[in-house]
Backbone:
């Protein structure tokens, strides 16, 4: 085995992990806590640059395909354009999360070094998930992504609901990991291999007639369903999203979901395609249940964090449509359309949902705020900029053109129609129409409802005590300078998300071509 080549393959992962360690060292040996977010963000930018740099050549002009995909450590991991897409996406999500988090974490007196280190370790797991081409590497990456997330969910240690969120997430995640491990063990037992390509060859020889292989893939699908919060494996989502710190909730809703889809999509496409009927039929049931239940449960919600939590469940159902389109037909054109739609939607959903949760952070920075819909009433008169930004993200999540949300749903639904599952696309369109009620209701409250007297008052002074904690518990938080207004980093992150929603919505072809290029090295 060529260890030098293997190290080159995992270099982006090494950079992210090294940045996490560096954050802890800086936090331990210096008193300059303000540099910690800069160190974390620089590590993510460096990881993305390293990954991009391995594909760029400047001889005779700029070339972006200067190398072939390479495997490392006996083909347990691979660096190809598919992994590159998710490395760049993970780094972008991480940087935006850091920008949303710094003032928030600092105001609550939490350990900033621990926060950023845990966040970087989760992103390292996401990167490893996208690169894994072996069952062992896949499971290690899965746990690396999961375990720090449990801690982040309970990062507000003095907040009862934050601790409750962490415990619920951990207990449910432990069961999901056990189910996934059992499925992977059965898959190894029936194939005698851990490498994806070798497993695919073994399943092809079985001609899809082995019941143990079917059970293994169903169990793996169940573990996947938990991580992406598909119904009926969704019960942890509303409580965890409500109790966790808002920036952590934003990150979990997009980052962990993107990492899970990156790893499982590669596993399904490269290893499990010969037995696609087993997991595709299960996913059809899960997708329908997820879209219907997610949208139905979001309708009566008055707490905006819970509303966006159930909304994220519904969006997981939409993304599952792309996986179904991949597995429903072995034709490369159908597989390519479904996979391309998944990659496009994950990137667009990151912009929309980070923006939506980011607006909650903005409002929270201006006044005491319990994340209820009634407190958003009249926001257009008291905070017109926040109302405009929130309206943009709600419209995009609904799927109204010309925002990026429209194109994300269009490509997903078109892939399902191309896979000759028109009835499933009709269900998705109907459920997307249902979501318009609760998304646009937020806009209606901001512009057409009268603001409560407390909200209409001037924001408290910079040193005023905050009386409502992040999870709306009875314990007061520390005195917060953040009530004077959102930081420049928060404003910049929201500006980036808003520009992305608009610009990609107006010109989606650039992101679509990036997704197509990522798939060529994966499926040919």
Residues:
């Amino acid at each position: 085995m060529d260890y030098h080549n293997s190290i080159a393959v995992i270099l982006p992962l090494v950079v992210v992990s090294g940045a996490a360690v560096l954050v802890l060292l800086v936090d331990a040996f210096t008193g300059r806590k303000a540099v910690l977010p800069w160190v974390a963000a620089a590590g993510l930018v460096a990881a993305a640059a390293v990954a991009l740099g391995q594909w760029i050549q400047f001889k005779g002009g700029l070339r972006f395909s200067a190398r072939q995909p390479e495997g490392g450590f006996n083909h347990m991991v691979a660096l190809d354009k598919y992994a590159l897409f998710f490395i760049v996406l993970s780094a972008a999500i991480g940087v935006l999360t850091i920008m949303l988090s710094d003032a928030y974490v600092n105001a609550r007196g939490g350990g900033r070094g621990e926060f950023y280190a845990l966040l970087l370790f989760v992103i390292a797991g996401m990167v490893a998930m996208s690169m894994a081409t072996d069952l062992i590497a896949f499971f290690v990456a899965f746990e690396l992504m999961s375990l720090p997330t449990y801690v982040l969910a309970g990062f507000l240690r003095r907040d009862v609901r934050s601790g409750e969120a962490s415990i619920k997430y951990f207990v449910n995640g432990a069961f999901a990991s056990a189910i996934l491990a059992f499925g992977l063990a059965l898959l190894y037992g029936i194939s005698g291999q851990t490498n994806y390509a070798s497993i695919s060859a073994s399943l092809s020889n079985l001609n899809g007639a082995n019941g143990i292989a079917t059970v293994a893939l169903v169990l793996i699908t169940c573990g996947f369903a938990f991580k992406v919060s598909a119904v009926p494996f969704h019960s942890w989502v509303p409580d965890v999203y409500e109790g966790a710190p808002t920036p952590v909730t934003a990150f979990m809703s997009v980052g962990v979901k993107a990492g899970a889809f990156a790893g499982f999509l590669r596993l399904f496409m490269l290893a499990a395609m010969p037995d696609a009927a087993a997991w595709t039929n299960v996913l059809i049931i899960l997708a329908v249940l997820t879209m219907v239940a997610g949208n139905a449960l979001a309708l009566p919600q008055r707490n905006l964090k819970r509303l966006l939590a159930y909304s994220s469940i519904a969006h997981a159902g939409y993304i599952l449509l792309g996986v179904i389109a991949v597995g429903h037909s072995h034709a490369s054109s159908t597989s390519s359309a479904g996979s391309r739609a998944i990659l496009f939607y994950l990137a667009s959903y990151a912009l929309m949902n980070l923006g939506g949760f980011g607006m909650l952070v903005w409002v929270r920075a201006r006044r005491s705020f319990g994340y209820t819909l009634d407190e958003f009433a009249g926001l257009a008169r008291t905070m017109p900029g926040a109302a405009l930004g929130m309206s943009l993200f709600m419209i995009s999540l609904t799927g109204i053109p010309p925002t990026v949300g429209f194109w994300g749903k269009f490509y997903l639904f078109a892939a399902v129609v191309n896979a000759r599952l028109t009835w499933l696309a009709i269900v998705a369109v109907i459920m997307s129409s249902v979501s318009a009620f609760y998304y646009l209701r937020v806009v209606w409250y901001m512009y057409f409802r009268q603001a409560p007297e407390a909200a209409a008052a001037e924001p408290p002074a910079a040193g005023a005590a905050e009386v409502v904690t992040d999870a709306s518990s009875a314990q007061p938080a520390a005195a917060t300078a953040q009530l004077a207004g959102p930081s420049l980093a928060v404003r910049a992150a929201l500006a980036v998300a808003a520009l992305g929603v608009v610009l990609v919505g107006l010109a989606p072809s650039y992101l679509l071509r990036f997704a197509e290029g990522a798939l060529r090295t994966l499926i040919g």
